[in-house]
Amino acid sequence: MARIIGIVSGKGGVGKTTVGLNLGAALAQHFKKNVTIIDCNVTTSHLGLYLGMYYCPITLNKVLRGEYTAEEALQTHQSGLKIIPASLSLSDLDGIDMTEIRNSIKSLFDKNDIILLDGGPGLGREAVATLKASDEIMYVTNPYIPFAMDIVRNQEVVNDLGVKPLGIVLNMIHGKKYEMNAKEIEELTRLPIIAKIPFDKNVHQSLALKTPVVTYKPYTAASKEIVKLASTLTGETYQFEGALQKFLKRFRSR
């Protein structure tokens, strides 16, 4: 039975989708997990775009309308991560019921170790539907007071739904004095910080190249922190190669 983990945020632009797809790629590539990530942000879907999927004939929208099964909508990335994108067309919003997300993907439960639901930001229809479809919730935020306060509001809904919060991924940290630190955010939200991902220009480069940063630049600070997050989720350790091991691998490949 798969773990159904919703990845949510109080605001857009905090890097939720980027964290989700990189986490999924790390789980698939480094921990050999069967992982599917689903774009539940149907009104402003970005997940497929981040991976260069500009046109997908079968999307979550069509699965929700009962036209196709979840298996038929699956796309596989070279990392091993599987994706169900949402449609980019506004006309495909007609006739879909977001409350049916969980029922629509039940056939994937026994075929995956982890299913990640990339929810919409805030507490709109799509976001709440993602919360209701999830067994566990992971928040993504930036180190500023308004963003942290949004998590407090979201957590009120999560508590009412009885969904388990895993904690907070603190993303795009610049290390400035005016940023909130992990302790302050934990005290405000009463949730643990489970990852602290620094700002890394390689993430933006990887988005332009339509590939996860954990694949594009696996030894950058952001990539290593995402792999550590995957390790935390699975309870398994991952050993990064040292400088000597990397040198020997390059030497042998010549």
Q: What's the topology here?
A:
Layout: E1 3-8, H1 16-30, E2 35-39, H2 47-50, H3 60-64, H4 70-73, E3 75-76, E4 82-84, H5 101-104, E5 114-118, H6 125-133, E6 136-141, H7 145-161, E7 164-173, H8 182-189, E8 193-198, H9 201-208, H10 213-216, H11 221-234, H12 243-253
Parallel strand pairs: 1-5, 1-6, 2-4, 2-5, 6-7, 7-8
Antiparallel strand pairs: 3-4
Helix pairs in contact: 1-11
Can you summarize this structure?
The chain is α/β, with parallel strands linked by helices. It is built from twelve helices and eight strands.
Description:
The protein has a single domain (3-253), classed as P-loop containing nucleotide triphosphate hydrolases (Rossmann fold, 3-Layer(aba) Sandwich). It has helices at residues 16-30, 47-50, 60-64, 70-73, 101-104, 125-133, 145-161, 182-189, 201-208, 213-216, 221-234, 243-253, and strands at residues 3-8, 35-39, 75-76, 82-84, 114-118, 136-141, 164-173, 193-198. The model has no long low-confidence stretch (mean pLDDT 91). Strands 3-4-2-5-1-6-7-8 form an eight-stranded mixed β-sheet, with helices on both faces. It is an alpha/beta fold and 254 residues long. The protein has twelve helices and eight strands. α1 crosses α11 (221-234). It starts with a strand and ends with a helix.
